[in-house]
Amino acid sequence: MDAADALNEIAFWLERELAPTFKVQAFRKAAAIIAGLDADEVAERTRDGRLKSMKGIGDSSFAVVSQAVDGAVPDRLATLRERNTHPLASGGADLRSQLRGDLHSHSDWSDGTTSIELMVDGARFLGREYLALTDHSPNLTVANGLTPERLREQLDVVAGLGETGVRVLTGIEVDILEGGDLDQQPELLDRLDVVVASVHSKLRADSIVMTQRMLGAIRDPHTNVLGHCTGRLVSGSRAPRPPSEFDAARVFAACAENDVAVEINSRPERQDPPDDLIQLALAAGCLFSIDSDAHAPGQLDFLSYGAERAAANGVPAERIITTWPVDRLLDWTRANR
Questions:
Q1: Which residues have CB under 8 Å from 121's CB, separation 6+?
Q2: What are phi and psi of 197, to 5 degrees?
Q3: What does the buried/exposed string (b/e) look like for 15-39 if buried means 16 or more CB atoms within 10 Å of the residue's CB?
Q4: Distance of alpha carbon 268 from its chain centroid, rounded?
């Protein structure tokens, strides 16, 4: 098999398993090196040992390349494939099978770990029909948020992708600023297929302040999805982080009134919203969007966790916008602009 493909697939499965980033990046880096060489040169350098002396090619990646050059499925890859034969979550299988796409993902244009192309490859590998690229907005400097100039450049890159086997939707995860405004130029938001609005700062503000902040964003006609609404973290190095305080009844009523979907964020460290708030949003008549919030290709499969939680809370498939065909979805996202 192709050596670069083997290295990238190993990285994909490691990402899915939440392996340490340095281990994943070792294989991604080696794949990028191999991809810059033609197949004959890779084979020649492997067999005479020169590949092993190249910076970025370690013992593990060299072993993978050697086996791939010899026409075998590398042992490391075969082991990972065997280990990852089952869905990440045991519940929600029927709902998971109805999910067509994902409206929340990040590339290395902001704080994701890989290129747009590799994110799209991951979505295709998982059988997604569409993937929204939603890198961060300027205010989130810690995540390398996109200035208007960089977002325009990214839109040109997406337009030039050509046939990928997956419909790539233009989008953004836009910061909800303290006054409830969206952190990007309105004329640029007008151009996007999907706008996910999220709070990332001052999460401990009092309930009145946070509620007004969220309502401002929900009432903006550009907003399609309210992202990870409580901001909580239940696991990982930054956990525990308690949920933000806000008037959930008012927020979800506004989502229903303004046709804004409530995100069921599938990241295992978020599990956001909590079950009681999913129930409240369901009773309020809200739509939902099950999203991965993936920052790497293997994390796109986190949708399994979101599907399990949605099914456990009795959310019907027809109220989950990521089960909709892409044309229906885009008619909906653009309806209020």
A1: 8, 297
A2: -110, 130
A3: bbebbeeeebebbbbbbbbbeebee
A4: 13
Q: Where are the domains of the chain?
A: 3-83, 93-333
pTM, rounded to two decimals: 0.96
Alpha-carbon distance of 15 to 301, in angstroms, equals 10
**pLDDT tens-place string over residues 31-86:** 999 999 999 999 999 999 999 999 999 999 999 999 999 999 999 999 999 999 99
- Phi first, then psi: give them for residue 261, nearest 5 degrees: -80, 145
| Interatomic CA distance for residues 302 and 16, integer angstroms | 8
CATH entry 1.10.150 includes domain 3-83: yes
- Residue 249 CA to residue 190 CA, distance in Å, equals 29
Separation CA 294–CA 137 (nearest Å): 16
Instruction: Enter the CATH code of domain 93-333.
Output: 3.20.20.140
